[in-house]
Design goal:
Length: about 150
């Protein structure tokens, strides 16, 4: 025969582990302070990663143009393009977007025989691209993989 357990003894209650309301409140306060200090730093990390992504997209387009010029034996250009189909020579704002294309015809313009290889979507809102060459509407890579400052127009 088994007896039903009775109420716990005082000695058994003293051995039980637990947290008091005061300890819980202090823990939540410390956690809140740590989060308050850590979240702004995390926002800076996110912002820096987004900026690096934006820059890497343009660098990738330039690398593609150079390698394709070398591979195809034809000039390949990267130009400013807001619509993804034609070059915007009149308003060269690289933040609007760009296209990489085989430039077999007129330099810096997508014409009948040119093949568009990649379309860059441009920069996200809140980001800007500053150029050192004022008005550089396109960059052309020669079959040798090189470009000359005179080709940057």
């Amino acid at each position: 025969m088994r007896l039903a357990p009775g109420p716990p003894s005082i000695a058994a209650m003293k051995n039980q582990a637990g947290v008091t309301l005061l300890e819980l409140m202090i823990t939540i306060t410390v956690l809140g302070l740590l989060l308050g200090l850590g979240v702004p730093s995390f926002n800076n990390v996110v912002r820096n990663n987004r900026l690096a992504t934006q820059a890497n997209e343009l660098v990738t387009a330039l690398s593609l143009a150079r390698s394709e010029a070398n591979k195809r034996g034809l000039p390949v250009s990267v130009c400013v393009s807001s619509n993804g189909a034609t070059c915007d020579a009149a308003s060269p704002d690289w933040a609007d977007g760009w296209i990489v294309f085989v430039d077999a015809g007129a330099a810096g313009a997508v014409d009948g025989t040119d093949e568009v290889l990649q379309v860059g979507r441009g920069l996200a809102a809140g980001y800007a691209l500053e150029e050192t060459e004022v008005g550089a509407a396109f960059i052309q890579f020669l079959p040798s993989g090189l470009t000359e400052p005179a080709v940057w127009r």
